[in-house]
Amino acid sequence: MIEGSGCAFAAVRPCFHCGESCRDERFVSGEKTFCCAGCLAVFELLTENGLDDFYSLDDAAGVKVKPAAPANFFRCLDDPGVRPRLVDYSDEQITRVTLRLPAMHCIACVWLLENLFRLKPGIGPSEVNFPRKEVSVSFETGRVKLSELAALLASLGYEPDLKLSDMDGPRSKPSRRLWLQLGVAGFAFGNIMLLSVSGYLGLDAENGSALRRLFGAVSFLLAVPALLYSAADYWRAAWTSLRQRRVTIEVPIAVGILALFAQSAAEVVTGRGSGYFDSLTGLIFFLLCGKWFQQKTFERLAFDRDYKSFFPLWVTRKEGGVEAAVALSQVRVGDRLVLRNGELIPADALLVEGQAVIDYSFVTGESEPVEKAAGDYLYAGGRQAGNAIEVETLKPVSQSYLTSLWNQQVFHKNKGRTLDSLTNLYSKRFTRIVIGVAVASAVFWSFRDAGRALKSFASVLIVACPCALALAAPFALGSAQRIAGRRRIFLRNPSVVETLARVDTIVFDKTGTLSAAGAEEVTFQGPPLTGAEEGLVYAMARHSTHPYSARIAQALAGRNGAGPVRSFLETPGCGIEGSVDGNEIWMGAAAWLESRGVAVPAPPGAGGGMVHLAINGKYRGTYALINAVRPEMERLLPGLSRHYKLALLSGDREKERERFAALLGPSAEMRFHQSPVEKLAFIRDQQQSGRAVMMIGDGLNDAGALQQSDLGVAVVESIHAFSPASDVILAAAALPKLDALLRFAKGSVRVVRASFVISAVYNVVGISFAARGVLSPVICAILMPLSSVSVVAFACGATALLARRAGLGGAEEAEP
Question: Which of 108, 219, 550, 628 could, after both became Cys, cross-link 277 (CB 3.0–4.6 A)?
Answer without folding.
Answer: 219
